[in-house]
C-alpha cells in the first residue's frame, strides 16, 4: 500500500481539532520542521495497565504505508496497525486548570485505566 493523502474527512482516519492542530504546528515550528513534508505521527504501542497506549512524535516524512491526512494545515501520519485501533478517533488539545496537553478521544475503547494513558479495544 502506498502513502495516501486524504483531506481528513475519511471516517477511518483520525480527526484533529483546530486547537490541537494549532498547538502541534507551533511545536513543529519551534523545532524548525518543514510543515509541507513533515507531520505528526500518531501510533499505538503495547503498554500501560490496560494493554495499549497512545504515542505521538514528529516525523520528517511519512512511511510508505502510512495513511496521511491533513487537518487545519497539519499533516498526520498513521501506520496501518495503529489505524486499526485509532481509526475514527479525534485528537484534541485540552488547556485547563488540572491539565494541559493532547488527548485522544477514541470511540473504539472499551476500557481505560484510571489515569487515561492506556486503553483496551
UniProtKB/TrEMBL annotation:
Family matches, as InterPro entries: ATAP, ATAP_core_dom, FeS_cluster_insertion_CS, HesB-like_dom_sf
User: Per its UniProt record, what SUPFAM superfamilies does this chain match?
Assistant: HesB-like domain
Q: In this protein, which residues make up the domain named Core?
A: 15-117
Q: What is this protein called?
A: HesB/IscA family protein
Q: What organism, scientifically named, is this protein from?
A: Halohasta litorea
Q: What is the lineage of its organism?
A: Archaea, Methanobacteriati, Methanobacteriota, Stenosarchaea group, Halobacteria
